[in-house]
Design goal:
With 191 residues, the protein is mainly α. Helix content is 62%, strand content 2%. The chain has a two-stranded antiparallel ribbon. It is globular.
Length: 191
C-alpha cells in the first residue's frame, strides 16, 4: 500500500514538473530569439548585420529568461546597477537601434513598463530590425540611417551585448545561474 502511494505521488509530481516546464517553454517559444534563425545562404551587408542582431537577441532572451524578483533587484555593489536597471537600459538601447534603423514604425513609447513588458518589447524591437536588415535586397544605405550605421554597431549593439553578460553575471550572483543548455555558439539549446 505504501509503495502504491509513493508511486502515485511520484506520478503526480512528475506531471506537475512536466506541465510547468511545457508551459514555460510554450511561453518562451512565442517570443523571438528562443533560437537563432537559420543562417542565410549568402553574405550581404544586411544578412551580416541581421545576424549580429540575432546573436544579441538570443543572448538577451536567455540572459533574461526565468529571472525572479530577487534576481531583478540584485546588484553586486552599492554603486552598481540592478538587473532590472540593466534590463531597462537594454530596452532603451533596443528602441534606439529600432528608431535609428527604421524610417517608419518607430517606437516612441515613453510609458514606464515593467520587466516582462520591457523584455518582450526589447525582443520585438530587435526582431523587427533583424528582419528588415535580412530582407533587404539592396545594400544598406548608410546615408539613410539617422545615425551612422557604424556607430550603431560599436554603440548600442555592442553596449547591449555587453550588458547581457552583466545580467548573466548578476543572476549567477543572486543564485539563479544562466541555463547551462544554452549554446551561444550554435544559437540553440543543447539536447
Amino acid at each position: 500500500m505504501m509503495f502504491v502511494n509513493k508511486f502515485k505521488l511520484l506520478i503526480i509530481l512528475s506531471l506537475i514538473v512536466f506541465t510547468g516546464n511545457a508551459q514555460d517553454n510554450m511561453t518562451s517559444e512565442k517570443l523571438p530569439f528562443y533560437e537563432i534563425p537559420e543562417a542565410p545562404e549568402t553574405y550581404t551587408a544586411g544578412t551580416v548585420a541581421a545576424r549580429m542582431i540575432d546573436g544579441l537577441g538570443f543572448r538577451y532572451f536567455w540572459a533574461t529568461d526565468g529571472l525572479t524578483e530577487k534576481d531583478l533587484n540584485h546588484k553586486c555593489s552599492e554603486s552598481g546597477r540592478t538587473s532590472a536597471e540593466t534590463i531597462e537600459h537594454i530596452y532603451g538601447l533596443s528602441k534606439f537601434i529600432r528608431n535609428a534603423m527604421l524610417s517608419h514604425d518607430k517606437d516612441l513609447n515613453n510609458e514606464v513598463i515593467g520587466f516582462e513588458a520591457q523584455r518582450r518589447q526589447t525582443l520585438l524591437n530587435l526582431k523587427l530590425v533583424s528582419d528588415m536588415l535580412r530582407d533587404t535586397e539592396n545594400p544598406i544605405n548608410l546615408d539613410e540611417t539617422e545615425v551612422p550605421f557604424w556607430n550603431i554597431i560599436n554603440g548600442p549593439i555592442a553596449d547591449a551585448t555587453w550588458h547581457c553578460g552583466q545580467i548573466v553575471m548578476l543572476r549567477r550572483a543572486s543564485g539563479n545561474p544562466f541555463n547551462s543548455k544554452v549554446s551561444v555558439f550554435a544559437g540553440k539549446l543543447k539536447a
